[in-house]
Amino acid sequence: MPGAFEAGRGELLRLSGIAKSFGGVQALRAASLSLQPGKVTALIGENGAGKSTLVKLLCGLYQPDDGEIQLDGAPVRIADAEHARRLGINVVHQECLVFDDLSVTENIFVSSRPARHGWLSWHHMRERARSILTELEAPFDPDEPVRNLSVAQKHLVQIARALTTEARVLILDEPTAALSHREVEDLFRIVRNLRDRGCALLFVSHRFEEIFAIADRYTVFRDGRDVAAGELAATNTEALIRLMVGRAVEQLYPKQSTVPGPVVLHVEGLGHEDLFEEVSFDVRRGEILGVYGLVGAGRTELAQALFGLAPADRGRIRIDGQPVQMDSCKTAIQLGLAYVPEDRQQDGAILPFSIRANITLTNLDSLAPKGLCSHDREDALARKWIERLAIRTQGPEQAVAELSGGNQQKVILAKWLARQPRLLILDEPTKGIDVGAKSAVHAVTSEYAAAGNAVVLISSELPEILGMSDRILVMRRGRAQALLDRSVATAENVVQAAVETTPRAGVAGPGAGVAAPSAGGAGPPAGRAGLAADFAPAHRPARATPTRSSQPVTRHNWTLAAVTAGLIAVVSGLFPAFAAPGNLLHVLDDSSILILLALGQMLVILTRGIDLSTAANLALCGMIAALLNRAYPGLGLLPVLVVATTLGGLLGALNGLLVWRLSLPPIVVTLGTLSVFRGSIYLLTQGGWVHDNEMSPAFLNFVRTNLLGLSSLSWLALLAAAGLLLGLRFTSLGRNAFCAGSQPVAAAYCGIDPGRMQFLAYTINGALSGLCGYLWVARFAVAYTDIALGFELQVIAACLIGGVAIAGGVGSVTGVLLGSLFIGVIKNALPLIGISPFWQMGINGTVILGAAILNARQRTERRAILEPEGPASPAVRVAPV
Amino acid sequence: MRLQSFLRWESVLGIVLLMELASFTVLSPYFLNPATLSDASFTFTERGVIALPLALLIIAGEIDISVAAIVALSSVAMGTAAAHGAGTSLLILIGLGTGLTAGAVNGALVTLAGVPAIVATIGTMTLFRGVAYASLGDRVLKSYPESFAVPGQGYVVGLISVELCLFTLLAVLLAVFLHRTRWGQSIFAIGASQRVARGSGLPVARYKFALFALTGLASGLAGILLTSRLGSTRPSIAQGWELDVISIVVLGGVSVWGGKGSIAGVVIATVTLGILNFGLGLLNVPGIVMSIVVGLLLIAIVSIPALLPRFTRQRAT
């Protein structure tokens, strides 16, 4: 929109003298940056230079320790992510911050939901999402669940998210890492579009080709501050690298020439589902085989198949001529393979453990052959490798978490090299580590190969691949496109092999060095609309997928409804009276308290919690309600209700506070509060009871009244269900609960506080429990210490049967309603069939297990409530640089 | 690093235990008496027998809240067999066998069916306790052979009970296993990072299955000891023990997130909580008030690391 922004030479955004440190590590010192409207500024720097911190400062996730941010010439304090958005600063983060459990539409509008008087308008959202997706030429539906999308497509969704509001400043943090060539072109088209409309763009990247293609200006960061800025037209790559590194680029690739020996690894026709197929190659002793390809090419999947982490389902592998079945890591390791994974913090090393413990872990069979460990032997091994690889550390007992990225990678290398593997597989070994450590890793790799071992080096850095490899295997879309010898490989032909489906005339060298790409049918035919082909999901399922519109939740609920109806039918076959409307309404009435509690518990589980204290809460509030009524019978019903509900809410809030503020594990907290609440009843009453003759008529009558055929309890349950259904579907707060439970880290980036959502969930659940306390006591006309003892298990059972995922982020009110009714039907049918109530518990247990097993089948692996890595609080998870 | 944290947690715990012993000695004249202390040991040996392998399971990153229900199940199985005339050795076999099978069921649910441990053990807890109720209803089984009283009521030498011996033996065995062998190191690794453990060639599923089975077996053993001591079986036996046992493990310094803990800590915690239980009983404090104390203690223990300044906390960078 012409004229919408400040036309002219003025600065739009200016940072001056920004400083930021994290517990002693200075991430930024006196950093400055200037962004002009209508210009794309590239932010260049090595990992650790401070780029990421700067980006997070700009989008409100951190506050600077010092310095000033000016917007339109006026100083401004960006309070949080929401504020940044309101100021017109949008960010596309490097990390994958999408919610797998939600739809594309919802992901796009997570920070900016259009609403009318607080009610979300889904229709509007869907239409706008559709138009944004069309503009991006994305081929997927707005209704598609994001978990079905490929990595590149998920990134597109993030980009779409940034385009929902008119941005005055748009920050793109390494946006092309996950994109293919074509997708990058499309992104650039949008960037140029925005630039021409007056937006100020910040493009963070270290891909110089792209920087020179898209950006107008540059700022170079080094060691936490800006060292240079200017027009890109006036400089070149070499000069920029020199500024980044601070010295002339040295020989980074100390490749020693070697004479390759016999074949160590022979791979023939290897394939795994649709992740990669028909891959064949050899690796010889003394050789480094580079594997290049863009994201989605299947390189890591190939490595995982070679190492037994995700075994191939077709093809043959031979080690030193012997055919092998690579069915587990253990097999691979025993055959002399080693694998340094891409994500060193999650998969490479155990960060809280010491260097010694990490190195010992892969060498247990040589360090403790009979089982007993020796600290001295382990210490000696660790020291040997600390020296060998020049690892900068205080000693073998230092935790790996305290080391720099480069030194962490050295520890990981050490633990594998100590085994002297005959084949070392390295997956992006120098990603994100500083130049010094990088060249050390290269030196070690070269040396290792020269000593007569084989190395497979997976990398997306062209200079690294070209500099280190004897031969280069180029993969594209799961197939081996080309196998180039060092002598003929150039940046051009390697990249071409990685992005095109058919080889160009110049690539096939004079015979010897090049293997023909896989036979016909490789990838989509050239004539098809290229865009659609590139955007098609990388994982083409081998079997037919379910129709796009069928959501697993809906299917689950229908199945549950059918099973419940079937159960009613079976029982009424034996006892026709069971299916009579009067009886069914009775079942509903009987299940009402369970429904109310299960609805509350659903909120808690949805936000990744669990509440075992709900029944104890109920009992305590119920007793207090009864005591209050006994002491002041003239008070009437309303004050008693208010007291019970408020008290319940406070008890729930206590749980919530402990889980939120102190990040305590919900299991432990609610186990503790369970006994405290229940014990408190005893403290109050010394074991005394409140009997029905001590309860006033007003107190007792409410739960015994009928309205339009339904009991008051049923009405309460149904109203609560309806209210929650609407609230969760049509209010921003409700949708935030789903986001917080689905991906807490992503939610934090979008301005949602997962901890706060948990607190709210526990408080609401507590209030519901308190209310049910009164309802229970009034219904059964008695109050004592042990009421509802163990009822929390039935509540959780109702949630599980209702399809609420224990890991959070998934659940439906309908499901919980049906689950509670299911349990209610069983409970009421048992006496009819003549099964003693003592069987109720056992049947509940069977039903829980049945539902759990079925649920487990459907879900992909997700973290359970006891996360091994600890609570997902953003302050801990977000890396400082 | 382990020595450092040992000095911090276990020592503090040791001091708490000493303070506790001192307080009770002052409050009750009966306390510091060898016979009394020997009686006191019964309050912690059975729970301790369950807590030790459960600690290993939690260190490996899992959890089992069905332990008390397994105790009940094995007790009911033994009681039913005894009512049909089974001898003591057979009863012991049945008790252990039931526990082992129950633990294996938990292990299979988690490792084979992929059910999260918390859900699986809530389910089996309900199922096992439910089977106990379904078999017995409101009856009590009391017809145990005389020799069956030995495990729970017998003494090895002087005032040292069979139970105390078993507990000590188990503690020593598991301490060596966890802290001195490669399998113990593997358990820590699995709990700290399952992904790295798997990528290092460790058969994670097998370890977890074995630990669930071991926990079940220990619960079965505790069932034998408890039933032998009480001389009778009710379906409500060991009700609420899962809270006690988890409290012991957490008090002992085992992190619920996995990857951290020590047997020494668990042993001290077992004795501490057991003595607390016993001491309060001597002072005529009712059991339910005891559970308030345990509940508060549990919350306090996990809160302490969260309230102390950052440097004692583990960081994931």
Task: Describe the overall structure.
Chain A is of the alpha/beta class and 881 residues long. Chain A is built from 33 helices and 24 strands. In chain A, the strands form 6 sheets. A 6-stranded mixed beta sheet of chain A has the order 6-9-10-3-11-12, with helices on both faces. A 6-stranded mixed beta sheet of chain A has the order 18-19-20-15-21-22, sandwiched between helices. A 4-stranded antiparallel beta sheet of chain A has the order 2-1-4-5, with no helix packed on it. In chain A, α6 (181-196) links the parallel β9 and β10. Chain A is globular. Chain A starts with 12 loop residues before the first strand and ends with a helix. The model of chain A is unreliable at 1-8, 501-550 and 860-881 (pLDDT under 50). Chain B is mostly helical and 317 residues long. Chain B has a single domain (2-308), classed as ABC transporter involved in vitamin B12 uptake, BtuC. Chain B has helices at 2-27, 34-59, 67-83, 88-111, 117-136, 149-153, 162-180, 182-192, 194-199, 204-230, 241-251, 263-282, 287-307, and strands spanning 155-157, 160-161. In chain B, α1 packs parallel to α12 (263-282) and α2 (34-59) packs across α12 (263-282). The two termini of chain B are 18 Å apart. At the A-B interface, α10, α11, α12, α13 and α24 of A face α5, α8, α9, α11 and α13 of B.
